[in-house]
Amino acid sequence: MNDTQMSVQIVEQFYRTLKNDDMEAFLSLMHDDIEMNLSGNTPLSGHIKGKKMLLEKVYPNLMEKLDFENFSFCTRWRIMCAGGARVTAIMEAQGKTLAGKPYDQRYCHIFQIDTKKVSSLWEFFDTELVRSSLFDGEQRASPFTQFEF
């Protein structure tokens, strides 16, 4: 298997674990020191370094807003292109917040794969939807450093 095929396989696993709500397997696909860059200027945006920060600072802020009986992180995805250790894909989430607001989100992801795990992820999404559906229009800025590329 060449590098591109291996990278695509890991990204496919990444989305399958999200679709199946298997957070343990999802997290196992990431390096402990993963670098994530989430677009925009929302309470979830910015440069996040490490799984620990993701689990302690990002996920709680997101998870407390979603109605998991009526929400799926990953309803469908498509890999748009891949080359070597980089893969670009689009994913959709669908459902409701605990406040009953729709949160049907589309994400563009750019992955960097290193030693069979995701080492970097750039994520682009509808930041106004995040602000209006998850944070009731609140203009609170991100607690993280700026998005990097």
Tell me briefly what this model is.
This protein has 149 residues and is an alpha+beta fold. The protein has helices spanning 3-19, 23-28, 51-63, 127-134, and strands at 30-38, 46-49, 66-83, 86-97, 105-114, 117-124.
What this model shows, in words?
The protein is of the alpha+beta class and 149 residues long. The chain has one domain: Nuclear Transport Factor 2, Chain: A (Roll). It contains 4 helices and 6 strands; from the N terminus they run ααββαββββα. Strands 2-1-6-5-4-3 form a 6-stranded mixed sheet. Strand 3 and strand 4 form a beta hairpin. The longest helix has 17 residues. The model has no long low-confidence stretch (mean pLDDT 94).
| Largest sheet report | 6 strands, mixed
Number of domains: 1
Continuous helix count = 4
CATH domain class name: Alpha Beta
Helix content: 25-40%
pLDDT averaged over residues: 94
The whole-angstrom Rg is 15 Å
Oligomer: single chain
Which descriptor suits the 3D outline?
A: globular
| SSE succession | HHEEHEEEEH
End-to-end Cα distance: 29 Å
Strand content bin: 35-45%
CATH architecture: Roll
CATH fold assignment: Nuclear Transport Factor 2, Chain: A
Order of strands across the widest beta sheet? Answer: 2-1-6-5-4-3
DSSP, total strands = 6
User: Segments where pLDDT lies below 50 for 5+ residues?
Assistant: none
Summing up helix and strand content along with how strands pair, one would put the structural category as alpha+beta
